[in-house]
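Technical annex B. To support the medicinal chemistry partners, we prepared a structural model of the target in complex with flavin-adenine dinucleotide, based solely on the information shown next.
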Amino acid sequence: MKRREAIQRLTAVLGGTLLGADSLMARQIDWEALDALSESASIGLFSKRQIRLLNEIADTILPETGTPGAKAAKVGQFMAVIVSDCWEKTDQDVFLAGLVTLEERCKKHSENLPALYAAAMPCTFS
Amino acid sequence: MTYDAIVIGSGISGGWAAKELTEKGLKVLLLERGRNIQHVTDYTTASKRIWEFPHRGRLTNAMKANHPVQKRDYPYSEFNPDFWVDDLECPYTEVKRFDWYRGFHVGGKSLMWGRQSYRWSDFDFEANAKDGYGVDWPIRYADLAPWYDYVEAFAGISGSLEGMPQLPDGQFLPPMEMNCVEKDVAARIKTSYEDRRRMIIGRVANLTQPHNGRGNCQYRNLCSRGCPFGAYFSTQSSTLPAAVKTGNLTLRPFSLVNQILYDKNKKRARGVLVIDAETMETREYEAKVIFLCASTLASTFLLLNSIDAGALPDGLGNSSGQLGHNLMDHHFRCGAWGKAEGYEDQYYYGRRPNGVYIPRFRNLFGDTRNYLRGFGYQGAAGREGWQREIAEMQIGGALKDALSEPGQWTMGLGGFGEMLPYAENKVYLDKSKKDKWGQHVLAIDCELKENEHKMREDMKNDAAEMLEAAGIKAVQTYDSGSFPGMAIHEMGTARMGHDPKTSVLNRWNQMHDVPNVFVTDGSCMTSAACQNPSLTYMAITARAAHFAVEELKKGNL
Ligand SMILES: Cc1cc2nc3c(=O)[nH]c(=O)nc-3n(C[C@H](O)[C@H](O)[C@H](O)COP(=O)(O)OP(=O)(O)OC[C@H]3O[C@@H](n4cnc5c(N)ncnc54)[C@H](O)[C@@H]3O)c2cc1C
Ligand code: SF4
C-alpha cells in the first residue's frame, strides 16, 4: 500500500479529520532517536530535537507524494527561522508550549492506541 | 561652486527637472540626500527567487525595531529593505497618525512606486472653484495636456484608448491584457450600467514593447526591487540617463539640503546649504534657479526650515501663511471582493504587474451624492494560490496535491478616494526634536473628515454592487481602515494658486515670493483628485522647467 493511501485509510479509521497527535503517530516517530538529539539551541529558539519534530509535523501535513514532502524541503528549519526571527515574543511562547503539549499527547496516544494503528497500517513507513 | 540650476531630490519629479533643464543646455547640480543606486547593477534582489530570502519576504523583529513607521504597511519588506529609510534616524511627530513612507537614495520613490499613471481632467482642475474647498487651480487641463503627451511619450505608459472625459486618453503603448474573468466582468459592468461605468486595464508605466532603448516588461511583477530590463519608469531607467547624456549634469549623492539660502535684497534664492549626509560637513552651492523636488513633505520641511536670520520667520516663500497647510492624501483600503465560478480550465500569462481600473463615476454627469468629489477603483481577478484553505482537507498528500493546482478565481476592487484640502490638515516645524543630522523635525497633524468617511460607504457598496451585477458570487465588502500617508500620495502643502495671499506657487510652480525657486513635486497640488498623482507631477515639472529656461533667457529670474 502506498503511503498516501495508508494515510487516507487512517483518516477513515480515526473518523474524518486527521489532526495533531493522531496523525503524527501515523508517522511512527522514533522518539528515542529524537530524545538523543541535543536540546541546545540550533536555529534561533529551537534545538535540533525540536526542529526534527517540526519536520515530522510538517511532513504529516505535506507529505511526499509525486513531489518531495515538507521534511525534504526542510520546512522544520524554516519554521524555526520564521518563529525565532519574525514572531512576537507572546506568539513564540504559545508556539513553543504547543510543541511540548503535542509531544506529550503523541506519546500518550502511542501507548493507548497500538491496535488501532496496527489496523490502519499493515505496512510500515520509512 | 556655481551652477545654472540646482535640482533638489532625484525622485520622479527631480529626475524630470534634471532631464529637462540639462537638455535645454543648463549646467545642473542634482542634489540627493541618499546614496547612489546604479541602474541594474545595484538592484541586488531583483532576480532572487522567493526561497533565496531567509524569511520569504517577511519582516524580522530586528527590521521592525528600527522601522516603526515603514513596517506599518506592505511596501517595506525583506524583498527591498535597502530602499526604505531607517525611521529612527529621521523621526517626525505624529500629532495624529500619519504614515510617512520614504526612501533616501538616487531615484527616490521612483524605484518602488506602483506605476499606475492616469491623467487628471477638468473635473479635477475645476473642482475647487466649483464647490469652494481650497483655492482655484491656476491651470486647467488644456495647460497640462501637451505636457502629459510629452512625458507619456518619453516615460512609456501602456494603456487603452477609452474616450472618457473624466480620464483623458494619452500617448499610450499597447495595453496589457485583462484575464478571462476581468474581461467578462468588464463586459457585464458596461452593459449593466449602460456604459456610465467602465472597467479598463490599468494604465501603467511598464513597457509593453521596447521603448527608447529600454527592454519590454517580462511580466514578473517584481518591480519594486528595481528592474534589470529598465522596463518600468524610474529615474534610473529613464530621466537620469537622458540627463547624463547631455554632459550637463553633476549628480551629488549624500547631499542633504538643509536650507535654501535667500538674498533679501534681490528677493531671490542664491543657493543651498548642504549637509554631507555621511561626514556631516556643510557646504554651499549657488545657482540662478532652484528646482525643489524633494517630495511633498520633505520640500515643505526644507522651505519651513530655511529661516534666514529673522528675515523669514515663517519659512521661505510663506508670506501667504499657507506653507504646510492643506495636506491631502488619498484614502483607500476599502472595497469588495468575491468568487468567480467556473473558468477552471483557464489561466493567465506570467505575473502581470498591473491590474484593472474603474474611473470615477460619482458626482459626475448628473449623479449627485451626499459628499463631494469621487473615487476610482483598482482591482484584479486571479486564482487563489497554495496558501488558500481547502474545505475538509487539513493535512496530507491529497491536500498537498490539491494545493499544487491553481485555486478558485476571485475578483476584488479597492477604491481610491479624493480627500478635500482642509487648511487645518497641516505640517509645521517641531523644534523639540532633532534628526540624525541635527535638523528639527516635522510635526504632522492630518485626518480624514466627514466627506471622506461618507465616500467610503459608497466605495464599499458600489464595488459590491458592480461585482454582483457582473455575476461574481459570495461578494463581501471590506474596510481595512486608511490613515493619511498610507496611500503615499501626500500632496498640497505648498499649493499653486492665482493669488499670492492665499497660495505659495503661481501657475508655473514658481514661488510668488521668490521667483527663482520652483516647487514641482506633490506639494504644489491644489487639490488631490482621485487618480494616482505622479504622472501629473511629471507633466507639471516638465512644463515648469521649460518656463524657467525661457524666463532665464529673458533675464527675468
Ligand atoms: C509603494 C508605492 C506605490 C506607489 N504607487 C504609485 C502609483 O501607482 N502611481 C502613482 O502615481 N504614484 C505612486 N506612488 C507615489 C510616487 O512614488 C510618488 O508620488 C513620487 O515618487 C513622488 O515623486 P517625488 O519626486 O516628489 O518624490 P520622491 O520620488 O520620493 O523623490 C524625492 C527624493 O528627494 C530626496 N530628498 C528628500 N529630501 C531631501 C533633501 N533635503 N535634500 C536632498 N534630497 C532630498 C529623497 O531622498 C528622494 O530621493 C507610490 C509610492 C510607493 C512608495
Ligand atoms: S515585471 Fe516587468 S517592469 Fe517589473 S521588474 Fe519585471 S520585467 Fe521589470
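Notes passed to the chemistry partners:
The mean pLDDT of chain A is 72.
The pocket of iron/sulfur cluster (ligand 2) is lined by residues B 206, 217-223, 227, 229, 231-232, 353 (CB under 6 Å).
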